[in-house]
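A note from the maintainers: we've had questions about how concatenated examples are separated. There is no special marker in the raw files; a new sequence line simply starts the next protein. For clarity in this README we add a label.
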Amino acid sequence: MRYLLLLIMLSLCLVSCGTPLIPEPLPTPVSISVAYPLYLQPSADRVIECAIQQQPLSLFITTSSTAQPDLPGQLIKLQLGGLIPEGFEAYQIGTEEIVFIVNADNPATQLSTESLIEIYTGKMLHWDFGDHPLIEFVLYPEEDELRVFVERNLPDMPRISFSAEIVSTPRHVLNTVANHIEGFGYLPSSWVEGLDEEMRERVKVLTLEPKLAENLIQPVLAIIDGPPSAELQELLGCLQQPED
């Protein structure tokens, strides 16, 4: 009993005389905002993946392609090629190729530039197989940046002259083409590359003429207003590494 009492008193003495442990304060998260158009969703997903690896970092995402002054921290704007605004810095974080897709059961494998123009102008309304079904062209709104880019790279900038199905995102294009043998549309190649095995078997990428295919390849740029902070430089370094 005496030894037990001495042990308790010794323990109390050690507790009262010891230096209390003071936890180190957690680092303050650094805020970074990202604005991007919906068709660059795969690139935005890469930004999120890199941000998760980098601590402490608070990432704020908006699907607007225009800069918003109320967003916290330094702003990154993702864009597909194009002009760099004066006073901004641009960093290439990837490359996108715009591809045209059809349903996997469509026997077509190639698409000439002439045929594409004929589809746009309404001279070609039907597919050349089976009972010649009507081409179901799935298209973005007239003011959509992706549509503007594609049409700017077509000879003589043809105007579509028949009723297309207007959708807002590449996801809608994929779903329509996958579920309709008549379906036809275009989207960035990263959307196709990111499909699961089941969905990948339901769509097919058409081979374009080399000149048009080359014109539809553009860098994905991260546009920043002013020099990047140390945290932003680290994030950009992750984004500029080759993808697996």
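[label: protein 2]
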Amino acid sequence: MRRREVIALIGGAAAWPLGAYAQETTLPLIGFLSSRSPEDSKPHTEGFLRGLRSFGYIDGRTAKIEYRWANGRYDLLPNLAAELLKLKPAVIASGGGAPSARAAKTATPSIPVLFVTSGSVEEELVASLNRPGANLSGVDLMSGDLTGKRFQLLEQLVPAGRAMGFLSNSKGIEPALRIKGAEGAAETSGRRLQVVDATTDAELDLAVAKLAQSEVAGLVVMNDPFFDARRELLIRLTAQSSIAAIYHIREFPVEGGLMSYGASLVDAYNLMGVQVGRVLKGAQVADLPVVRPTKFELVINLKTAKALGLTVPPSLFAQADEVIE
């Protein structure tokens, strides 16, 4: 080999790492902020990544994602959002409901923020669903609007006449609005409603124990990321107290809870990934309407129903999208 070729080869080899580094540093940076835990969010995160892939963005290859998780500690979110801002992301994906979205909105008035939450208008995250304005848009699950529907579904399964319970998180997403929905459903059915509040694991223990002492017929659990992150604990506490409970996402009955009614979180995170992809391709976030789900799923765990001594009526079976044997 000629000396000139050897020098060129060595020079090319030396330059390659620099070229690779330069390419890596030009990858768009996506900040991912969530009030949940990574373990709890695994299927949802996979849905988000699928949405990104549909626009050609793959973590580590054509984009870079920096994750920050609050693990149910809403008080950590402002600092986590500030950490992400220091990295200068092109866009922030905000999972885990209004607490995450609010922290991102407070942190930056300019970087696009795409969220998955409920009550985005009521929480004043956006001006309206069709014209969100400012730098936020995303997916609104409408979950809070379904509190009364969950009450009605559970009522078909539990003994008539007895009181119902509602588990609220006073630090969560519009608790007063959720409680109002439960109170309206209870008034319509003529049942007494007992509202209990929990913001920590210890308070969850006390709240479920209080409901058990009151011998409530069933429990409607407020849609809230804190409760989602404590899914295993909630399922165990209600089972030990023989309380029939309904939740907002299918992950609860899949893991042993009685039933759920709501939109698919996996689908919602997929849609958020799609919106992030659109923004990275040049779309203006203020021009992206907030997406709302068109399908809601009722999931019943038949094994749990039998363990609680409940018989699922044919009318409820007919409404179920999924029955777990």
